[in-house]
Specification:
alpha+beta, Conserved hypothetical protein from pyrococcus furiosus pfu- 392566-001, ParB domain, four-stranded mixed β-sheet, disordered C terminus
């Protein structure tokens, strides 16, 4: 039963074999980076980096950066990091990044918007985006609102899926837009 969980399949791999994803909304201050560094040096690796089967980082980017950039952290494990392999399509992996980040704290709103736009462009509805990333949303068009195209439409869809912007109130009473 437990052997089917990703955590049961931790592997140690060279940090150089991994790469950052293009969607991570998480930002880290210098103070937080130093705190993470001290945590790794004092407590060791207590949490693996989550990666795709081909080595793209889903969660754990800042831990990975420390191994690449900091000689002392790198020397702890000879440049290797613990990883678990995530399952799912690209949109699910993007949503997993958001869930992991939100479960630990805050993340950058603009980068979050890029993730939402990417998931919408991949065919997910605003409701699916919200539900899969833990934001919960209704999505859709406001009654009587002329539907706009292009960038304004995408911005509106992002605001709706994240429950922000001027259309956030009463979001659940709207239907999802088509197309």
């Amino acid at each position: 039963m437990h052997d089917k969980q990703p955590i049961s399949q931790v592997q140690w791999v060279d940090a150089d074999s991994l790469r950052a994803n293009t969607w991570n909304p998480n930002v880290q201050t210098d103070e937080d980076k130093e705190l993470l560094r001290r945590s790794l040096l004092r407590s060791g690796w207590t949490q693996p980096i989550v990666v795709t089967p081909d080595g793209e980082i889903v969660d754990g980017f800042h831990r990975w950066c420390l191994v690449i950039e900091d000689q002392e952290v790198n020397a702890m494990t000879d440049g290797q990091v613990p990883v678990v392999r995530a399952r799912g399509d690209r949109c699910e992996l993007m949503a997993a990044t958001v869930r992991h980040n939100r479960a630990r704290g805050t993340h950058g709103v603009l980068r979050m918007a890029d993730i939402v736009i990417g998931m919408l462009d991949a065919g997910r509805t605003p409701q699916q985006v919200g539900e899969s990333s833990g934001h919960g949303c209704g999505g859709g068009r406001a009654p009587g609102r002329p539907w706009r195209h292009g960038r304004a439409r995408r911005r509106w869809r992002v605001q709706r899926s994240m429950g922000t912007g001027r259309w956030a109130r009463g979001v659940n009473r709207y239907r999802a837009p088509s197309g």
